[in-house]
What does this fold into?
Amino acid sequence: MKDGLEPSSVLLCDAYRYWLDRCRDRAMPSRSDIDPVEMVGFLPNVALLDVKWDPMDFRYRVIGTAIDYHSSATHTGEWVSEIPGRAPPSSVWDNFLRVAETGLPSDSAVPYVGPHKDFVKTAQITLPLSYEGQVVDMLLLVVDYIRYKLPETPDQCR
It folds into this structure.
């Protein structure tokens, strides 16, 4: 994988391979290289964010149905700087900023704080997009939801 990135789930690996394929000989693909029809396996888990450079901020342009389902609120159209728990200083903000500034993808795990109590964390991959190939102008975020692992047999509960 590029730059030693090791996505932690099959869903994230599929998204990362898709992004890598769209890079071709460039550092990163552009938004026009991304086709939702080709992303059926992970499209519900995708969010697309605009990157604003001055002042730095990120706006949720599109949020997939799986992300909306697992969230306590819908954030489509909102700026990350205005969302409690995601505004700086936060690990979410730091991850988006790192990807925007370096142009390199990033994988991370974030504790799950949504409405469904059977999930323990999210695994995420944040992938940069650039219209002209150098400056990141969008982020492609893919989120997988990790459940608490329950014992497979009653004996494992003891």
Observations:
- The first strand starts at residue 46 and ends at 53.
